[in-house]
Design goal:
single chain, 18 helices, binds 2-acetamido-2-deoxy-beta-D-glucopyranose, Peptidase S28
């Protein structure tokens, strides 16, 4: 996934903090994040059209030129004969290391909830290339149905999205593995005659684990990195990981600032004053106000990366702004008197300035837009365009139907919060009702059917030749088998590897450097371990 660093916020990488350019789209959620998606993505598309050329576009197209792109025809409905329609599933092939006639494996990178081309760095210098190089195998990126160009519908209405679900999308991979014929390769590379090693990170990591348990006969081995195998309605732990792992001064400033905001909002005398600090008195709903404050700066934590070339520095920049020029909480926690005998901590004033400069300023008020139009979420009609450019609808639909992950405040008042306690499930879930009115053939459930995910194992999911790799301070770790809140300890063995990368965030093993010896020690180490266990697994492979 390509990170667009150092661009102004409104140009900053599309996919709203996509888990991809950000690692995908996993943290798109709630109507406010759709507002952000629009503010960031639409100007970017416009900028590209008028000839601006973000450097990342250039690098992604040059990678696309290094790996041939092919398509594979899939039925839109594998199971129920509700349509005879098909779509072309796109994939990109790396045959650099392929040694024919040696029983070499196929390594697949599951594209997950992102466009395939965003995953090409993993095929070039990341884990797919590393494993292919070590085994003489073929590596590929397989795009997920409905994402990128692998689209078989003419719009993203509720009815058109009804074939976007886990069962159908997993069967795509199985069908592909059983029957693909790679252009230019004479050997039969299909499963189970050839060992297939499945890799995914994040949502795709969960898919990698699910493939291993649902299709043990064709998936020889799986690597599930930052695999969110536990679906949850309320995902308050996400922000709790950040609170505990962030710079302690920044974290204390956040907790205190949020406390002050929540308390000033409750008092009619100070209600408008606090919104005014952020230049957001024009925003009607207090929940929209606080969701805006929290949304952008905190979501960038998961986009930290060990490789400076792909790292998103936004979170650290935000902390620097919040902490100001002082390095102690004692200083930033000092109060300042505002008119009306209101006292606020200095950090909150820094916070407000950051939000005004970086977020509120992206609202084109000079062209007549109001902050309500930019950041209000009450008008459902703004979430009902269904044309194919509304890519935010895809992961949002998956969230609303199966996955959940609404980032609420902690359920207990005793747990300090870095997001406002006004952010609750009803508020975040509202987008599911606004964006997906009932169709003729399909109705989104009243709450996501997380049981349909968790029945596959949740925190306890396990199989031989299924590896879990997680990051110690990944905000998604609470939803993986390494959950520090809920999962049972497990041994780490060759047949069931269970690796926690120290100091790592979200699927940090997926990318690599062209010169692997120059990777930081913990990244070099995990790559070496992954090579070692995959090679050991492959020694036991037998054709059926
Ligand atoms: C779908 O159609 C095929 C071919 O007509 C048939 O074999 C199959 O049983 C049908 N499946 C269902 C679930 O109706
Ligand atoms: C699919 O094609 C078969 C054979 O032509 C036809 O009988 C069936 O009605 C079609 N199904 C749908 C849903 O259009
Ligand atoms: C506050 O917002 C108004 C329009 O809503 C804008 O004209 C003004 O420049 C903003 N002020 C600051 C300090 O950002
Ligand atoms: C930090 O200090 C510099 C120089 O004293 C000053 O120009 C700047 O505005 C200060 N920044 C903040 C956030 O207080
Ligand atoms: C900040 O100030 C508040 C109010 O005086 C106090 O309750 C809180 O403990 C302080 N926080 C820190 C981290 O010093
Ligand atoms: C690769 O990185 C190592 C460690 O930093 C360095 O010693 C070596 O010169 C690099 N090799 C190349 C070809 O750049």
């Amino acid at each position: 996934m390509l990170f667009r660093t150092a661009l102004p916020l409104f140009l900053l990488a599309s996919p709203a903090n996509s888990l991809a350019n950000f690692g995908g789209r996993l943290n798109i959620q709630g109507a406010q994040s759709v507002n952000f998606w629009k503010l960031k993505t639409l100007p970017k598309v416009a900028a590209v059209r008028v000839g601006a050329s973000p450097s990342d576009l250039a690098s992604s197209s040059s990678l696309a030129a290094s790996f041939p792109e092919y398509t594979f025809t899939q039925p839109l409905d594998h199971f129920f004969n509700t349509t005879n329609a098909t779509f072309e599933q796109h994939y990109w092939l790396n045959t650099r290391h392929y040694t024919p006639g040696t029983g070499a494996p196929v390594i697949v990178i599951d594209g997950g909830e992102d466009d395939g081309p965003d995953r090409l760095p993993y095929l070039d210098t990341g884990i797919a290339d590393i494993l292919a190089s070590a085994t003489g195998g073929i590596a590929l990126v397989l795009e997920h149905r409905y994402y990128g160009q692998s689209v078989g519908v003419s719009d993203f209405s509720t009815d058109s999205l009804r074939w976007l679900n886990n069962k159908q999308a997993l069967e795509d991979s199985a069908n592909f593995m059983r029957s693909v014929k790679f252009p230019g390769i004479d050997e039969d590379m299909t499963a189970p005659n050839t060992p297939w090693i499945y890799y995914g990170g994040s949502y795709a990591g969960a898919r990698s684990a699910h493939m291993k348990v649902l299709y043990p006969d064709i998936v020889y081995g799986s690597l599930a990195s930052s695999a969110v195998t536990h679906a949850a309605l309320s995902n308050w732990e996400y922000m709790d990981v950040i609170r505990l792992a962030a710079d302690p001064v920044c974290s204390a400033n956040l907790v205190r600032s949020i406390e002050v905001v929540d308390s000033l909002l409750q008092n009619p005398q100070t209600h408008n004053l606090v919104k005014g600090l952020f230049n957001l008195t024009g925003l009607e709903s207090d929940q929209d106000f606080v969701s805006e404050i929290l949304q952008d700066p905190l979501g960038s934590w998961q986009n930290k990366n060990w490789d400076p070339a792909v790292n998103d520095p936004s979170f650290d920049e935000f902390c620097n702004a919040l902490n100001g020029n002082t390095s102690t909480v004692a200083d930033t926690n000092k109060t300042v008197d505002l008119p009306g005998d209101v006292k606020v901590n200095i950090a909150l004033l820094n916070y407000a300035k950051y939000v005004r400069d970086n977020i509120v300023s992206s609202c084109p008020t000079d062209s007549g837009a109001t902050v309500e139009e930019c950041f209000g979420t009450n008008d459902a009609s703004r979430y009902q365009a269904t044309d194919l450019s509304q890519e935010w609808r895809l992961w949002t639909f998956q969230v609303c139907t199966q996955w959940g992950y609404f980032t609420t405040a902690p359920p207990s008042e005793d747990t300090p919060a870095i997001i406002s306690r006004l952010i609750d499930l009803d508020y975040l879930h509202k987008i599911c009702i606004q964006a997906f009115p009932p169709g003729k053939y399909f109705t989104v459930p009243s709450l996501p059917d997380i049981a349909s995910v968790n029945v596959l194992g949740s925190f306890d999911i396990a199989a031989d030749r299924l590896a879990f790799i997680d990051g110690q301070i990944d905000p998604w770790r609470p939803d993986t088998p390494h959950s520090q809140y809920y999962a049972k300890p497990r041994p780490d063995t060759i047949i069931r590897p269970f690796k926690l990368i120290p100091g790592a965030v979200h699927h940090w093993d997926e990318n690599g450097l062209a010169n692997h010896s120059a990777e930081p020690p913990e990244i070099k180490a995990i790559h070496e371990q992954e090579v070692a266990f995959v090679q050991t697994w492959l020694k036991d492979f037998q054709k059926p």
